[in-house]
Design a protein that fits this description.
Order of helices and strands of chain A: HHHHHEHEEEEEHEEEHH
Strand content of chain A: 25-35%
Shape of chain B: elongated
Distance between the termini of chain A: 57 Å
Oligomer: heterodimer
Number of helices of chain A: 9
Number of helices of chain B: 3
């Protein structure tokens, strides 16, 4: 039998769960063969359930932080688009991701946020904590997700300008960090067709996420005006969409063995030769309304 | 079919049956044979609905039943299974008979709330048993 000390020092058990989950105390599971144990990393709460003698403690688990309701709606829609009602991943949707994480910004640097709100209502300081992203989850695409509230007037067209700056932490300073690099986007869309605006920031955030940066601090200046400059419509009446801070959406390929690997499965089923993995070809996007979840061509 | 009939004859009880038609039915329609059984649960039953947002229900299914003495192609069992059966019967009954276990699975998409309040959509491998075998 494994002693507690041996379990902790067993390197193979490191994959089982994150250190904070106290799962290394689960001696019965660690007696299982490695291949079987691997599966228990799937859902740490399952491991906790199996570990609790008498199943008394797990039901009284500390309540989790509740996510933003808008974010929840978006993710439910993404779920409906990606899986059947029974929860089976849709086979005909040839997306490459098997994991999508949605982060809402932390409430850090609020003092700075308030100061900016006085002078420039559209500039928002955002801090995203990406601790939940595991080392085996590889970024395919990252998106800033804005939602329009219903008070936005139904308009034929809206043009938005977004200026995004990522900040580097200066630990010697008590105030918020300084800017490191920035990028500007311009978007045009029709409000009546979509409640969500997705800004692809993959190329911008890729280096940060690839280097396992746990906290991403950015300033977003998002300004929307009614009108379409391409159709010579005069831009007027700014719309306050930036008051609701955007969420950060990460489309990931989890390479761990417990995650479902669609391409492996398709290869096995069709006996086709290996299809090349194209990192940026995400073919499903939960942009919601009619015709917006189409393959990447339109979005590109 | 002849091979199967031969297998069945090996399992014939020592006492001759009185009702021959009933006797042969058990070979034509074997009872309690290893097969996939339906099982459906609701995450709220486990009080997991606090952190699993979707799906609400889950059908993991399960495999249950007796493994025949001679497992054929139907179960896709390896030769080892037959050897284990012979060991059980002829050499050492403390070695277990082959077990009825899942052979194939399908994945499941799950939408969960993480402890930090973030939301994650994830597709997990091997969540629903779809085929059984004797091993």
């Amino acid at each position: 039998p494994h002693s507690r000390g041996r379990v902790v020092s067993d390197k193979t058990s490191g994959f089982l769960v994150a250190p904070e989950d106290n799962a290394s105390e689960l001696n019965p599971l660690l007696r299982l063969p490695k291949g079987v144990r691997r599966g228990y990393a799937l859902l740490p709460p399952l491991l906790k359930v199996l570990s609790d003698q008498g199943h008394q403690n797990w039901e009284s688990e500390a309540p989790r932080l509740q996510p933003d309701s808008r974010a929840l709606r978006y993710m439910k829609r993404l779920y409906k688009m990606s899986a059947t009602k029974e929860g089976i991943p849709k086979a005909n949707k040839s997306h490459l991701y098997n994991t999508v994480r949605l982060f809402t910004p932390c409430s850090e640097c609020k003092h700075r946020h308030r100061d900016l709100m006085k002078g420039d209502v559209h500039s928002v300081d955002l801090l995203f904590n990406l601790d939940r992203v595991t080392a085996l989850e590889h970024l395919l695409k990252s998106v800033l997700l804005y939602s329009f509230d219903t008070s936005v007037p139904i308009s034929s067209s809206i043009t938005c300008m977004c200026h995004l700056s990522v900040k580097e932490h200066d630990f010697s300073s008590q105030v918020c960090p300084s800017f490191s690099h920035s990028i500007a986007f311009s978007l045009h869309f029709e409000v009546r067709k979509r409640k969500w605006v997705e800004i692809d920031v993959t190329s911008f955030l890729q280096p940060l996420i690839a280097t396992k940066r746990r906290n991403i601090h950015m300033a977003v200046n998002f300004t929307c005006l009614v009108g379409d400059p391409q159709q010579n419509t005069k831009l007027e009446n700014p719309i306050n969409v930036a008051l609701v801070p955007p969420s950060l959406l990460l489309y990931l390929n989890d390479t761990s063995e417990q995650a479902y690997h669609r391409w492996n499965s398709l290869r096995h089923r069709r006996k086709n030769p290996a299809r090349p993995r194209q990192r940026n070809s995400l073919l499903v996007e939960p942009t919601g309304d009619k015709g917006e979840g189409k393959p990447q061509g339109k979005r590109a | 079919s002849r091979r199967r009939r031969d297998e069945n004859l090996k399992e014939a009880p020592a006492t001759p049956p009185y009702n021959l038609s009933e006797y042969f039915k058990q070979f034509l329609f074997p009872q309690n044979e290893c097969e996939l059984h339906n099982f459906r649960l609701s995450f709220s039953q486990l009080k997991w609905d606090k952190w699993i947002i979707a799906p609400h229900r889950y059908s993991p299914q399960y495999c249950k039943g007796d493994c025949p003495r001679v497992v054929g192609h139907r179960y896709g069992s390896p030769v080892h299974t037959m050897v284990q059966n012979i060991i059980y019967e002829k050499l050492d009954s403390s070695v277990p008979k082959p077990s009825c276990v899942p052979a194939e699975y399908s994945p499941l998409s799950v939408l969960t709330i993480e402890p930090d309040g973030s939301i994650v959509y994830k597709e997990y491998e091997d969540m629903i048993a779809t085929k059984c075998t004797c091993r």
